[in-house]
Amino acid sequence: MAFDxxxxxxxxxxxxxxxxxxxxxxxxxxxxxxxxxxxxxxxETYRLQISASASLPLIYxxxxxKPSPLTAPNFCMLLRKHIxxxxxxxxxxxxxxxxxxxxxxxLDEMGDLCRKKLIxxxxxxxxxxxxxxxxxxxxxxxxHVSANMxxxxxxxxxxEYFIPQTVAKENPLTVTEADFCRIIxxxxxxxxxALYNHFTGISxxxxxxxxxxxxxxxxxxxxxxxxxxxxxxxxxxxxxMEDVKEGRFSPAIIxxxxxPLEYASIPLTCLEGxxxxxEDWSSISALLENYYASxxxxxxxxxxxxDLRRIVQTALERNYKKYDLQLKQLKDTEKREKYRxxxxxxxxxxxxxxxxxxxxxxxxxYTGEEISIPLDPQLSAKDNAKRHFDKYNKLKRTFEALTxxxxxxxxxxxxxxxxxxxxxxxxxxxxxxQIKEELMxxxxxxxxxxxxxxxxxxxxxxxxxxxxxxxxxxxxxxYQNEELTFRFAxxxxxxxxxxxxxxxxxxxxxxxxxxxxxRAFEEAGALAAxxxxxxxxxxxxxxxxxxxxxKKVTGAAPGFVIYxxxxxxxxxxxxxxKEAE
Length: 581
What we know:
six-stranded antiparallel β-sheet; 13 helices; 22 strands; elongated
């Protein structure tokens, strides 16, 4: 799943027919490391999305728009000033590097034609978007890299731009068959590793495909290949590079039983016949957007929810420690009855004591067995009995107080775990708003000032249609769970929840249609399992009951309920239903 040099070459080929010669109409920066550029060309408007995110760097054409911040960041303002209406003269890729260079022409403040370069580097955590003068001097970049951060290259205004060469690799587009054979023959590693370690822009899966096309085991030692094998491998490699130079691409996603397995801009015949299916795409941009859309969304939301997760996790760890300590102290109070019995027996048999004894043995009339009672030799029988009764009363008071405290701590842990589960479910930024409101209400997050505007709640529960046409609703957080169960659901609707673990409330609507089919219950149960902390388990036990039998816990946090005489089923966590529009 590498964003390799061949994928970049495919993108450049696509951009040349769509963006080259076009005029920039709008520049936005929806995220701190992301640009969205609108380009008018061929009587159409194209949107180019560029992300230099360390976790998921991307570049492709998209039809989707993103909301921008009210105040544009400095880098965005700089680009608007210089190239807000520039024309794209050319789009190139140096060698097979994971780099795209946009050459732009615009009018300066004096009305003279000037040229600039916008360079996009898709290099994992080192990805960047760099704005340069025509001579290569850096004007600015979306990420500044100082000498303290990198010993290889500084990316700062005024510095000279150059491509970092941390590892000496050959350009696969210009290498000759003779040079290819020499390089591979000298490599003390497997053939696959030799290919992607010695040639720019070659990913492991492309290296595997080259070996497969040449009918060579990729795990063989490169320096152990025969002359015939080496020649055949070189010929196969050069043919593939010829396809890249001529723009003969075949973008496709390979799926296995669990979902998307791999993608590439060349046919991956090495994965055929291994229980995989291939889905061809006419556009590499459409392929990348489809492949990365959900992953990008989840990555972004995890970044935005990081502060909330840290607050919840810190509170959970504190309460886990407190709960363990309370349980240990509670266990120590279990011996309290022993001291009560000591006191009663001393009051009954204490007349037998002469004084000065360190212990006293007598028959315990509760069990009929002999018991030894420790004594303070300085005290009388009556005072020793009082001492044991005092111990009993102290432990009894401790037990009563700790029982209440442990119940409160357990309730707080359950509440925090339910919030943690809601953070895992959140798919969009608006899903986090209600979670933050709940954390504010219960004092985990500082409350807003009286004059601060309350955020608008736009997040809604998931809404699915079962295979038999029944409506199923899933709460995304505790407030939505409360709303679904006690305000939205009718008495005859069915309520589902994962047994004994945090999760969403799931409502299967009856709508007066009589008895529901088993498949509807199974699908609702699968959703309840999927939207719970047990979603990674093979199977999850699900409780289900009609809503009219659900009762709210007085004084409890939102979404907490009690119920009895429920039904149970075992579900495999899955979400195979499509959301209703």
